[in-house]
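Risk register update: the risk of archive-format incompatibility is retired. Evidence:
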Amino acid sequence: MLTLNQEKLIKSLDTQKGRKESGLCLVEGEKNLAAAQNFLEFTFSYADTPNFERLVTTQTPQDKAGVARIPKFELAELENKKTILVLDGVQDPGNVGAIFRLASGFD
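Archived output:
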């Protein structure tokens, strides 16, 4: 069961300010949760809250969602990579999961 504080946190992740202040983001769907597993703080589903559909951001919600830490990278880590993938303004979380899975295949 989600606490009131967890629900408030999840709702705050709708805004850029909320994500920036907390260093967290909302992850929706089993595939995306699997891709973010090392960064997950907690997951939740319909069984954990009657407000599930109001907490998630997709028009057709998945069965499960989670809150994850936003990865931070040091310049030294990036300088050693041949290719860097940067996403900006992605509107469909499902697309991000697919892009991450493809990118992980190329290290």
